[in-house]
Amino acid sequence: MKNKKTYIIFSTLIIIFSVCIVDIVLQNDSFSAIKIGDYILHNGIDFVEHFNYDNTLVWHNSRWLFNIIISLFHSSFGLYGVYYFTMIMNAIIGLTIFNCLLKRKNNIILSFFISIFTLYLTAPYVTGRAQIVSFLLFFLEIYSIEQLIDTNKKRYIVYIVLSSILIANIHTTVWPMTMVLFIPYFLEYFLSKTKLMKKTKSFYLNISNIKFLLITFILVCFSGLLTPLGSTPYTYMFKTMSGISTKFISELQMPNIFTNHRFLIITIILILLFVKNKNKIKISDLFMIIGLFIMSIMAGRNIGFLYYIGAFIIVRLITQTLSKHRDSIEKITDRLNKVNYPFIFISIVIISASLYNFSLNYNKNLVDEKEYPVGASNYILDNLDLNNIRIYNGFHAGSYLEYRGIKVFLDSRSEVYTKEFNNTTILDDFYDINYGKKSYYEVFKKYNFTHILVYKTEIINQYIQYDSNYKKIYEDDNFILYEKI
After folding, report:
1. Among 52, 178, 194, 409, which one is least packed by beta carbons within 10 Å?
2. Distance CA 468, CA 9 (A)
3. Other residues' Cβ atoms within 10 Å of the Cβ of residue 436
4. For residue 1, what pLDDT band results from cuts at 50, 70 and 90?
């Protein structure tokens, strides 16, 4: 490989950086994933929600394959297994971005810095959740689409379809995006047939033959059937987005883009690159960025698509902007490859930043006891009969309780507790009592709760602590457990 020394150094730095920026603190979805994955390994997929005490709800196992993977890591390394898995995945993502950018014949130095920049942008999305795998697969899908367009090599059709099948089984919720990402390329092709676009001096069209792309798209449309979940990949996202879940899951809500410095940074960079570029811009790049920006404004989760897929477009725009100086840049790159001090400087900066990020985890616990009822769970397991209790718990605490083997009222898989999936009002009732729209007494009586587990700061706690029907049996700095008298 050309610039082999440079490649090895940059790859090593990417691995170090990607591993060190992973936050050790686990999120609630990871706890559910471990428990569900363990159940599937021992019992298979049966579409029954086994972790709610009524056992009358349907669960579509939308992340069944990811849950199995996480459960296997957990069985080998405990909760640290989730942390190790996340570090490994982020290292794979960093190297994949770097190598894919190189395969697109980009400058190695530019590819390295864009890879590091992308890892920095996406750090908040790097957790032990299915999205860490699906984002990687979406990135590979875009890479394969671009390679298919440029080369017409049929193996890229296979790669795209395989990516789609994996997403359908690993992260069913976002599977429709595998089809959405084709839209900018189809628009580019259709515009290439109009006289208007042929006359423009600002954009260029790169798609002359749509046959292979269309065949791939059709195969992707049907690939959602290659799961044990039936039609779930085709309906899950839309059912989730149409229900009350969007009021609870922050990533499904409209983000405050003006306080998100990462989003503002990439926005400014892309605007400058589009405006300052004196060369023709690929029309599908424009459509892709506009589409991803619209999606990002609609739901915070979609910002991750902008960060990962934007890497291809940023590199292409920078390369176009510097095209007049391409020979000079290549000479500089070759010269740098022959001396050591630039690599020493870059290594010091990257390793220092990596160690700083890694040090932030030093005093953190895998489980944040301010968020999850660790002590309360210990008390419940030691003092209560799990077969004869019905605990009221909050949205965020449920997944950890499940992980500890305690059945719950609800958890962070909000869609399970909605009318759209189970014709139940569990999530609505939880929402109503938390925002004072319904009496907690009415809801507690409806579900016949024997125990109430709440955060000290919850509004509902201000009422229950004075309710003579309940007595406090456990308390720590963050949680209180009440028992019905």
Report:
1. 194
2. 67
3. 11
4. very low
